[in-house]
Design brief:
The complex is a heterodimer. Chain A contains four helices and one strand, in the order H-H-H-H-E. Chain A is mostly helical. Chain B folds into two domains: 187 residues, no CATH class; 146 residues, no CATH class. The chains are: A mainly alpha, B alpha+beta.
Chain lengths: 65, 371
């Protein structure tokens, strides 16, 4: 996995945590910045701009559910 | 049957420390008696007693997030005239072949549990949420009986099995609750006589048929809006539909968030979701069916509902609503997808190349043979 792919993968992991059932989008509760869970940290760092800018690139790596 | 989260929590608070009450874990007692000391705890409900971690929050089970525990008003509060998704709770679903509900009913029947008067409250604690472990609690209120008011609690670590079930004998509080529902029924009737706009709220003892009228689909909204003319403003319409200004309209008002603000994305996502949900309650399509916010509905008495106007009234631009609808809906879909392993992807490409070379080689060999 190239560094660029890893960057996209991490954004997607943040998205996955954020929009998972029972995740922040559902509950309105955000994980703490100092969390030890890597996905919680990625969700905390996630920005709308990241979604907007990298949506098309991430899409290439996703299998529809 | 429908009750409000305020009524259920108040009933629980009144009974937990009474003589003969069912034992309850201290953390729940703390949540109930000192909600302001737990600002991080939220409450939700469900209509199917399926507490498996991967299904407790299924929308198909009637799961609904209700809000922060600390913001739930204290006291016996009547259900709203139409349907208030942040306060009103429906009993466990009785109809159909749902095996979870059926098994639950069979197991707890000896304790006096009746699904029609059984409500599920789910306490969500952040530290549990992050590990995917909201903690469900069931409250059983057999409001039609003065004798039996069992209570059962489910712990987060043992979410599949009730931690305790002890019948409580003839509580005064149970009688108070019964009295409340009887009084509420009268209040509801009075209200419906006074208003010719909002549909009457069903009495607490009505069956599921009347509850179906309260579900937040477009039909009840359409019935109410069809009786209104073009002079009505958004505030009038929300009042007629029983939409609470503070709970449902204010969260939908556009929030201008700077990217550097902590939790900026969360604020925007929740803000957009509140807007989309409000549109549905106003009889308009949500952000999935109408991402651009262009839908217009004309009602028979002259009222025209325009998503664009509603958005503008609440400080949104159509473009912003459209962008967020598109990005967030994509994100929700992406969250449910799986990542294609890039190494596997490269392997497929390599295999394809080998196949291509083989075909090419055979083609060349055939061509040479022909010569």
């Amino acid at each position: 996995m190239t560094p660029q792919q890893k960057g996209l993968y991490d954004i997607w992991r943040g998205i996955r945590y954020f929009w998972a059932p029972g995740g922040p989008a559902d509950t309105g509760i955000m994980p703490a910045a100092h969390s030890r869970n890597a996905e919680e940290v990625l969700a905390f760092k996630l920005r709308q701009n990241s979604i907007r800018q990298h949506k098309a690139a991430i899409k290439r790596y996703l299998n529809s559910p | 049957m429908v009750v409000t989260i305020s009524t259920l929590l108040t009933a629980l608070r009144n009974t937990i420390e009474s003589p003969g009450a069912a034992p309850m874990e201290q953390q729940y007692i703390n949540f109930l008696t000192h909600p302001l000391a737990h600002p991080e705890v939220s409450v939700a409900t469900s209509r199917v007693p399926d507490f498996a971690l991967d299904s407790i929050q299924k929308p198909v089970n009637g799961y609904r997030y209700l809000g922060l525990l600390s913001e739930v008003p204290v006291g016996f509060v009547s259900p709203s005239a139409t349907w208030d998704p942040s306060h009103d709770i429906l009993a466990v679903h009785e109809i159909g072949q749902n095996t979870d509900s059926r098994d639950f009913a069979h197991v707890w029947e000896p304790c006096g549990v009746q699904l029609g008067t059984h409500f599920i409250i789910i306490f969500i604690h952040p530290s549990l949420t992050h590990s995917g472990r909201p903690s469900p609690m069931s409250y059983i209120g057999n409001f039609a009986s003065r004798r039996s008011t069992p209570i059962s609690a489910h712990t987060p670590s043992r979410a599949h099995t009730p931690a305790s079930t002890t019948p409580m004998v003839d509580f005064d509080q149970a009688n108070d609750l019964l009295g409340f529902f009887q009084a509420d029924s009268h209040q509801t009737n009075s209200f419906s006589n006074l208003s010719n706009i909002a549909p009457p709220a069903p009495a607490a003892t009505d069956g599921l048929a009347s509850l179906a009228q309260m579900l937040p689909n477009s039909l009840p909204a359409a019935e109410v809006l069809s009786a209104m003319d073009s002079s009505q403003n958004l505030s009038d319409i929300c009042t007629a539909l029983g939409i609470n200004e503070k709970a449902s309209v204010e969260p939908a008002r556009f929030i201008d968030v700077t990217a550097k603000q902590p939790n900026a994305l969360l604020v925007m996502v929740r803000n957009h979701r509140a807007m989309s949900q409000l549109l549905v309650r106003l009889g308009q399509p949500d952000h999935v069916d109408d991402p651009q916010g262009t839908h217009t509905t004309a009602y028979s008495r002259g009222l025209t509902m325009s998503t664009q106007n509603i958005l503008l009234e609440l400080g949104w631009t159509q473009l912003s609503y459209f962008h967020k609808s598109t990005w967030y809906e994509w994100a929700a879909t992406a969250a449910a997808a799986s990542w294609i392993d890039s190494e596997s992807g490269e392997l497929y490409i390599l295999l394809a190349c080998i196949l291509l070379l083989t075909i090419s080689y055979r083609h060349d060999s055939t061509a040479e043979g022909a010569l």
